[in-house]
Write the structure tokens for this entry.
Amino acid sequence: MAWLEFAAAWVAFFVTHSLPVRPPLRPWLQDRLGRRGFTFAYSGLSLAVLVWLIGAAGRTPFVPLWDWAPWQAHVPMVVMLLACVILALAIGRPNPFSFGGAHNDRFDPARAGIVRVTRHPLLLAVSLWALAHLVPNGDLAHVILFGVFAIFAAFGGRLVDRRRKREMGAEWQRLRSQVTSSARNMRPESWIAMIVRVAIGVALYFGLIWIHPWLLGVSPLG
């Protein structure tokens, strides 16, 4: 039964992450919830299903693929700090190159921030999260769980690039060239915003350490 629950959680994850964002369902939901309401509802649903998926993986029969060693627990503790900072630098800011950008029409190449480093910071954060947690979780269910997320994040950027290039046309390359050429001319205000966002990322990191045992039943501190 535990493996059936794990499979059902995967089905729910892919359904809830694909159907709500496809036409005509997304416009229909946005008309009734508003753009902000849709974003909050979609984010809340996605988080709830993710928690279920992770919990279902923990309830499956333990099938070891490699032995656990104490040093492995330090890998997610170190890598997740970087992932949280990247997430804080990306959330709520314009990014016309990827998904999840806010107010993309206001995107300023001179204030590209994390977009100057990677066009897909959210996918990079997901990749770091998945690979870091894969190291100390060497059983079959968790290897499937974190392995699928790592593969999705690795190839998702290419799919998003292809779609955004098709949608934006020559504007995609023009903006990308401006982001690269403006690297030496960043406005000072960008550094202030970056410092604030880094502080938020650090706070998020410690918040996740605190809530991890309550949400997922496992303490990252051991």
